[in-house]
Design goal:
Length: 139
């Protein structure tokens, strides 16, 4: 697996496939086990699902295999690598949370964090944009 490849894959146009069906389909294509080797999160508002592989696989090859799979094509879904980014948006923050607290929380390596280079707080929205020094810090 190339070191720059994302460990996450985005599936678009998923409305014709239930979550249970999508999970089984992904297990069949990847030969991996849901929960042990990958997770699936559905974002119904934009008709997509995101799979994050916790087991090391060639995600570029997996995306290719999805496009070749008969069942996947029948559902008319598409798959692509999730773009690597250094910034994330965090919502539903407690009122009055400080930039220092957010920095300490997201720099915690035990939860997949890494060095933070910038925090933009939006108190009126109870949100923030966290920018990491490296894209691996936003896991």
């Amino acid at each position: 697996k190339p070191s720059k490849a994302s460990s996450s894959v985005v599936f678009e146009n998923i409305q014709g496939c239930s979550l249970k069906c999508l999970r089984m389909l992904l297990e069949n294509i990847s030969n991996l086990s849901i929960d042990d080797d990958f997770t699936v999160e559905v974002i119904p508002e934009i008709n997509v699902a995101v799979t994050r592989f916790t087991k090391s696989i060639d995600t570029e090859e997996f995306v290719k295999n999805c496009s070749l799979n008969k069942r996947f094509k029948e559902f008319k879904m598409t798959a692509r690598l999730l773009e690597l980014t250094r910034s994330i948006r965090v919502e539903n923050l407690p009122a009055g949370v400080s930039a220092d607290f957010i920095t300490l929380y997201f720099e915690n390596a035990r939860i997949g964090g890494g060095p933070v280079s910038d925090i933009q707080l939006f108190p009126e929205e109870n949100s923030a944009i966290i920018t990491f020094c490296d894209h691996r810090g936003n896991a």
